[in-house]
Amino acid sequence: MRVGGQAVIEGVLIIARKVSLAVRKADGEIEVKDLGVVNFPKWSRIPFIRGFYSLFISLYFGIKALNLSSEISSGEQMKSSEKLFSLLLAIGLAVGLFVAVPILLTNFLVEKKGEFLYSIVEGFIRVGLFLLYVWIISLFRDVKRVFQFHGAEHMTIHAYEHGENLSVESVKKYSTIHPRCGTNFLMIFLIVAVVLLSIFGSVVSLSTWTRILSRLILLPIAAGVSYELLKVAAFLNGRGWVKILYLPGYLLQHLTTARPDDSQIEVAIAALKHAVGEKENTTGDQEKEEDMELLG
User: Fold this and answer.
1) N or C terminus of the chain with fewer C-beta within 10 Å?
2) CB hemisphere CA count around 19 (13 angstroms)
3) pLDDT band at residue 148, thresholds of 50, 70 and 90?
4) What is the pTM of this model?
C-alpha cells in the first residue's frame, strides 16, 4: 500500500489506510490524532483527473493538520476566525506572488506582447520567484525544523516501503530524498505550466486580467498532466530519460528536507504506524496501491 505524507509544525501527517497526525507536544510527549479516512471514488482514478484529486486531498488534510499541529505543539486553541484568516492570507499571497507578480514583471520586461515569448519569460520568472521564496524561508529556524520533519517523513516511508521493522535505527540509514515527494511534482508542474500557457497564449490574445484568470483556470489541467508524468517516472523507477523529470525536484529536496534528530524520527514513525496499523503487512496489501502517490 502506497502512503503519502506531509511535514507540519513539530509533527508529521501520514495519509494511508487512515489519515494520521503525530505531533511532539511542549512537554515532550507525542500526541497522535486520527483525522479520518480517505475515500477514492471510481471517477477519482481516471487519468488526468486523479492527479488533481490527489492534490486536493493532500491540500485538504494538509491545511487541517497544519492548524491542529499548531494547537497541539503550542498548547493554545486557535479561533475559527484565525484559521480562516490564515487560509485566506495564504491563498492571497500565493496568487499574488506566483500568479500576479510574474505577469506584472513580464509586462514590464516584454515590450512586444508575443504571447509565446511572453509565457516563456513569465514562466521563468515564476520558477525563479518560487526558488527564491523557498530559499528565504529556509533561513528561518522554525521552517528549518519543519524541513527536518519533512526529512523524517521521507526516511520513515523509505523504511516502510523496504519492509523494515520501523525503529529509529532502521529509519536513520535511509535518505531524506524521495522520488514521490510533492517537491518533484511541484517542479514538474511549474515546467508543464510554462509549456501549456505558451501553447494557449500563442492562439489566444489576452489582457493582464484575463492572463491572471487563465493561469488559475489552467491550474487543474497542468496538475493532471504533471501527475501523469510523475506516475510514468515512478513506473520506470527513474531510469533513462525519466531522470530528467526527477532532477529538478531532487535538487530542490536538498533544500526542503534536512536530516532529522532521533526525536523527530520517532514522531514520523508514530504517525505512520497509526496510519497503516501496527500489524500492517508491508508487502501484502495491494488493494489501495495507488491511493496516495504524493508525499509532502
Assistant:
1) N
2) 17
3) very high
4) 0.85
